[in-house]
Amino acid sequence: MMLTLSAVTVLAQIRPTIQNLPDGDYRYRDSLALDRPFREIQFRKRDKYITGSDSDKRTGKSYCFRGIPQQNNIINITIAIETPSQTAQQTKWKLAPGSPINFDKLYPLQAGPGLELYKCLTAFLPKLK
């Protein structure tokens, strides 16, 4: 029996899609160059949800998001933007629909110490009463 692998099959084994990643923390960038501004996405995949941050060092804009992985995209995005709070102890969030995030042109980096996910994870916690 002869097994033939196409280029697509081999590429998929080398770089799994976002949907096929195991649960865990991840970090992606649009550039591997360290000497220029970049866009970085940090996220935690847990069950069928992805929660993370999308930061663009070129524009200074960043936001938290939550969505569902579909192939190499995150869809059904809800974004969370910090709003001014009267007390420094409680962060308030404004939730809004967001655009899908595509990972085809992003490079995976090692996720380790330095991930700043806690703030974004708390944005999507259920409200306790």
Describe this structure in words.
With 129 residues, this protein is mainly beta. It has helices at 7-14, 118-123, and strands at residues 24-29, 39-46, 49-56, 61-70, 73-83, 92-97, 101-102, 107-109. Strands 1, 2, 3, 4, 5, 6, 7 and 8 form an eight-stranded antiparallel beta sheet that branches. A hairpin with a 2-residue loop joins strand 2 and strand 3. The radius of gyration is 17 Å and the shape is globular. Mean pLDDT is 83; it is low at 1-13.
The parts where pLDDT drops under 50 for at least 5 residues are 1-13
Taking the alpha carbons of the first and last residues, their distance comes to 63 Å
Strand percentage = 35-45%
Structural class: mainly beta
Shape descriptor? globular
The oligomerization state is: single chain
Range of helix content = 10-25%
Number of helices: 2
Number of domains: 1
